[in-house]
């Protein structure tokens, strides 16, 4: 009887642990979905436009200051020739010019090269919006997680097909936009990877090193992301 009781306790512990890992997977998925929501802007506006406009304004100020300094130098020379005591101080203008020139150097480093075709940014956000309202929508992910949790018929096939669809979208999206828009596309892909990892965790209901390793490998291959070296499985999750 004692052995049977101990066996039941062990089964209960395993069941609780599996439930805990399943909840962790759901949390990963929903955090990823929240990140995707935050990354979808209300209007398809390039976030780097403000930097470009600021740089343009700085250059206009530099041009104006150079003109003012040249004019004041000429006026001062004329005043000295005519013994006129009134001259224009130019030191403050020169200080402002130096300050603006330094600012121009800093801002130029923040400017990201964009393609001439401005419609590409609109296409990016349109594809992202369609993705958010289809295979990565809250309704779709919740339905999939629910089917997995209750082990609905063919739930493994459903999850596999969903993962394949997500992977294809990530590949197409990355190939199309990561060259010029990596600052926008990479965060979107990272959030999507969170959702995928979470769903896979719900399926396994245990700490699955191969899933995490696969996720890290996918993230590492993205542009503008530091390469993460995947080590032995026992070093990933202990």
Task: Put the structure in a nutshell.
With 238 residues, the chain is mainly alpha-helical. It is built from nine helices and no strands.
Q: What class, by secondary structure content?
A: mainly alpha
- Number of helices, where a helix is a run of at least 4 consecutive DSSP H or I residues: 9
Counting DSSP E segments of at least 2 residues, the number of strands comes to 0
Compute the CA-based radius of gyration: 29 Å
Which word captures the global form?
Answer: elongated
Output mean pLDDT: 78
Poorly predicted runs of 5 or more residues: 222-238
Structure, described:
The chain has 238 residues and is an all-alpha fold. The protein contains nine helices and no strands. It has helices spanning 2-39, 49-81, 91-108, 119-132, 138-149, 155-177, 182-204, 209-220, 233-236. Helix 7 (182-204) runs antiparallel to helix 8. The longest helix has 38 residues, at 2-39. The radius of gyration is 29 Å and the shape is elongated. The model is unreliable at 222-238 (pLDDT under 50).
Secondary-structure topology with pairs:
Blueprint: H1 2-39, H2 49-81, H3 91-108, H4 119-132, H5 138-149, H6 155-177, H7 182-204, H8 209-220, H9 233-236
Helix pairs in contact: 1-5, 1-7, 2-3, 5-7, 6-7, 7-8
């Amino acid at each position: 009887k004692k052995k049977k009781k101990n066996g039941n306790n062990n089964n209960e512990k395993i069941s609780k642990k599996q439930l805990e890992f399943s909840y962790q997977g759901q949390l990963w998925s929903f955090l990823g979905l929240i990140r995707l929501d935050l990354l979808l802007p209300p209007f398809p506006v390039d976030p780097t436009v403000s930097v470009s406009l600021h740089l343009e304004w700085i250059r206009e100020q530099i041009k104006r200051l150079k003109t003012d300094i040249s004019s004041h130098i000429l006026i001062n020379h004329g005043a000295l020739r005519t013994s006129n005591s009134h001259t224009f101080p130019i030191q403050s203008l020169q200080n402002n010019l130096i300050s603006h020139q330094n600012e121009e150097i800093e801002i130029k480093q923040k400017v990201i090269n964009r393609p001439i075709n401005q419609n590409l940014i609109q296409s990016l956000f349109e594809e992202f919006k369609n993705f958010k309202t289809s295979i990565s929508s809250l309704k779709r992910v919740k339905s999939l997680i629910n089917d997995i949790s209750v082990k609905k018929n063919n739930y493994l096939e459903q999850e596999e097909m969903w993962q394949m669809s997500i992977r294809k979208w990530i590949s197409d999206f990355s190939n199309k936009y990561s060259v010029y828009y990596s600052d926008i596309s990479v965060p979107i892909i990272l959030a999507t990877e969170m959702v995928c990892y979470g769903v896979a965790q719900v399926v396994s209901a245990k700490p699955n090193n191969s899933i995490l390793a696969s996720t890290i490998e996918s993230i590492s291959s993205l542009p503008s992301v530091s390469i993460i070296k995947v080590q032995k499985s026992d070093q990933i999750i202990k």
